Amino acid sequence: MLVPIARPARIRLCLVALAAVHLLGGCDSTSHTLTLVKPRLPIDQHLAEAFARLFDESTPIDIELVDNPNPELPGVEAVKAGHADLALVPNTAAYDARVAVIAPLYPSVLHIAYRNDGGPTDVAAGDAIGDLTTRSVYAGPPGAPSRRLLEATARRDGIRPEDINYIENGDGCAEVIVVYTAVLPEVPAAIRQCGEYRLFSLGTPDDIGSGRALDSVTLMNPTLKPFVIPAETYGDLTPDPVVTLAVDNLLVARADLQDPVVYDLLSEVLRMKPALSASRPALFHHLSDQFDTSGLSFVMHPGALAYLKRDEPDLYERYSGVAEVVVTLMIGLISGIYGVWKIYSIRRKNRIDAFCREAFELRDQHLSGTMNRASLVDALKALQERAYDMMIHERLAADESFRIFIGLTNDIIADANGQERQSRA
């Protein structure tokens, strides 16, 4: 037989059921899909594809690669315009408030390759690379950091940027190749598509920090860092160490991207560092949440900054130790002052006790007949004057003990005068 449930009980059961559904729904993490604009260089595209593949359905973040609406512009322009959420940007890009940094991912290294015609390997820069107005040059797409650096160098040599013999298609066989890219095993094959090349070195490893021209470049461009590609890293392409420049490749996002989403994204990137390092050990080995934020081209995204400061103590924790020390010192100071005051009070009370004993001794001498009334009164008056003088000079406290002493001496004087009047009567 079914027992009907009363209305209040049914209401309570409904509320419990709704609460249970809410709790179960809260356990389901929401997945966010972010769009990453494809880089312009083919090698960087492969890196972006490998990076996006790591974010599968098991992660709270899903990354989808999208084409740049305007391939002639850097990927950061797509982020500024809102066509993409994320982009890989060199740390030399111009500041824009619409873009914020999530983290530096890996260094992008300047590769200057020139076709080796079998000549000596220790020739000067101009002899090795040749005349840029006649030799074909590929320096990345227009606006690329490598092209801007090449044009700045050419200006110092008296070559106008418009006179450089550029090949716009990266698949073309250029005699000089100048690109920023990561140090990867695929680089030699990409460079040697049209013959034998060698990497040009900007100096020797001993030149770094010696005040030579390489140091002037990094001084005037603080985002650039000296970088040494060790000998035989690329086989015959690098028979000797190659000194060049590197710049951090940044993962940037729209500045208005939600803070919790960026927080989760940076958390997942750092969590998957072992997977990144396994695929590209030389590239992502130094990926960390410990980096200098002061040298970035863009401001840090608040969500990324919150993740970096997640373990830092709050204001109370930071200053609680100092506050405890201050409170302890204050308590010790107050206790010490109170102790000194108590000792000083006891000493002043001991002085008034001595005056009281002296008054009793004078009374006893009068009662025993060894001191007459006049001498007693004079001695007590003198004793009172001494007490008042010490009180004025704060050697006695004007407290209840002092008033008792004055009252005592006045009573002894009054008793002595009364006895004198009775003896006369």
Describe the structure.
- This protein has 425 residues and is of the alpha/beta class.
- Helices cover 47% and strands 15% of the residues.
- It has 14 helices and ten strands.
- Strands 3, 4, 5, 6, 7, 8, 9 and 10 form an eight-stranded mixed sheet that branches.
- Strand 5 (137-138), helix 5 (145-156) and strand 6 form a beta-alpha-beta unit.
- Helix 8 packs across helix 11, helix 12 packs parallel to helix 14 and helix 13 (373-392) runs antiparallel to helix 14 (400-424).
- The chain starts with 6 loop residues before the first helix and ends with a helix.
Low-confidence stretches: 1-28, 119-126
Overall outline: rod-shaped
Alpha-carbon distance between the termini?
119 Å
* Average pLDDT figure: 80
- H/E series: HEHEHEEHEHEHEHEEHHHEHHHH
Oligomeric grouping of the chains:
single chain
Portion in strands: 15-25%
Major beta sheet, specifics? 8 strands, mixed
Rg for CA atoms: 45 Å
Q: Which structural class should the secondary elements be placed in? A: alpha/beta
